[in-house]
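Reopening this ticket.

The earlier resolution said the output was attached, but the attachment link was broken on my side. Pasting everything inline this time so it's all in one place.
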Amino acid sequence: MVFAFDRMPDRSSTFVPSTPGAIVPDALAKILPEDSFVRMDESSDVEFYREPRFVAHIDDATIEALTEFYRTFIPDNADVLDLMSSWISHLPPEKPYGRVAGLGMNKAELAANGQLSDYHVHDLNADPVLPYPDDVFDRVAIAVSIQYLIKPVDVLKSAGATLRAGGQICIAMSHRLFPTKAILAFHRLPPTDRIRLVSTYLELAGYHDVHFIDQSPADADPLWLVVGTQP
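Inline output:
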């Protein structure tokens, strides 16, 4: 079951990340409690995701808002990595792509995703290094999954290596999660601080121009986006 938490951050307060390079590598240990990346259920992620879940994790209006954002975020003919992918990628169906690679935890879900040109089954919590060469993608998308990573900065550094110079990553968040597999920081922090935390992940991973965009539709699940650029 997926649970919903706080509705949305204060729209009147736009988060501006700190100056790139100002946060030291051990900053997360300094600003978060020691158990922030612990989960209620520390059993095997492979077992947890063994059975496919052909469900949408955000509602239709929020999916439409994310797809609309991707229309401008992703250039035509781009090579895209859908990181932490599933049976749907939320990509605009009419847009031409060079390649859409998917990396996720369940083979049946990935095989059912008609937008993927290729896919890998890979447990990022067991191995945060992505199975792709450097400089092969123009965009990386992570949709409503960042809360499950126990080594997020390592994963995002590896994702950054796969991006070509000037490539961008978009991390989409909402208020729904599998509570037993989300890190404790996402249970404890209010939405605005979750956005700050994910922005800090990207800064620590070496991305530039990290910024927050609120794409939340009215009367639907919120949609909070954090975008960064690979130098």
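Reporter confirms the inline version is readable. Residues 1-25 have pLDDT under 50 and may be disordered. Residues 3-229 form a domain with the Rossmann fold fold (CATH 3.40.50.150).
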